[in-house]
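Field log, afternoon session.

UNIT: design team B
ACTIVITY: writing a sequence onto a fixed backbone
BACKBONE:
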């Protein structure tokens, strides 16, 4: 049996340790010893893109924002659904995650970062959203573990009422905000409705 091998490490803004492991052809990422993501478990990331971009079928040149690169599964699924003239902005807080995708993880998804439709924006996605107005047809958020921050406590701003309102301003008419969450978040859903979003919840096995 092949061992699990640590192949890269970085620090989060909160000082936590993020590690990248490889086990044969599989990869996993941990934060302070807790599993954050695994290459064998990615259906929910793909579903985030399917749900968030479903209304863009046939749209000639949509613009979308993906908050959080992860292992690239949401990005790959979105690219497969969107037209050749689409623009996909990926906001990723940790430069190391971008480097890991380029160096180690690209083969998992056909190297989506090399697609000419993709623009990587390193830094705080909350600030990126706040600077945008009527820019995106869809915003797909997979930041930390959903509304309960795991990597950077500053990301809690994104899930506050102010953050939700900023997302609404960044969306174009009939735009869609899709949010990945590891747990049921009724308070977050209530905030969305208070900000005039029509809310639907989907559970991925």
């Amino acid at each position: 049996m092949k061992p699990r091998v640590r192949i890269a490490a970085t620090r989060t803004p909160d000082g936590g340790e993020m590690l990248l492991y490889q086990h044969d052809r599989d990869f996993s990422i941990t934060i302070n010893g807790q599993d954050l993501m695994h290459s064998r478990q990615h259906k929910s990331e793909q579903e985030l893109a399917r749900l968030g971009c479903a209304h863009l079928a046939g749209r000639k040149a949509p613009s979308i924002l993906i908050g959080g690169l992860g292992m690239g599964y949401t990005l790959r699924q979105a690219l497969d659904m969107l037209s050749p003239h689409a623009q996909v902005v990926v906001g990723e807080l940790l430069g190391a995650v971008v480097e890991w995708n380029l160096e180690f993880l690209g083969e998992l998804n056909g190297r989506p970062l090399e697609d000419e439709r993709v623009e990587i924006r390193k830094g705080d996605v909350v600030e990126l959203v706040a600077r945008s107005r009527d820019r995106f047809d869809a915003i797909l958020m997979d930041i930390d573990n959903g509304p309960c921050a795991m990597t950077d406590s500053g990301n809690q701003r994104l899930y506050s009422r102010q953050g939700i309102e900023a997302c609404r301003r960044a969306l174009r008419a009939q735009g869609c905000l899709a949010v990945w969450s590891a747990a049921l978040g009724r308070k977050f859903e209530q905030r969305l409705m208070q900000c005039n979003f029509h809310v639907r919840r989907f559970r991925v096995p």
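LOG NOTE: The radius of gyration is 16 Å.
NEXT ACTIVITY: expression trials, pending approval
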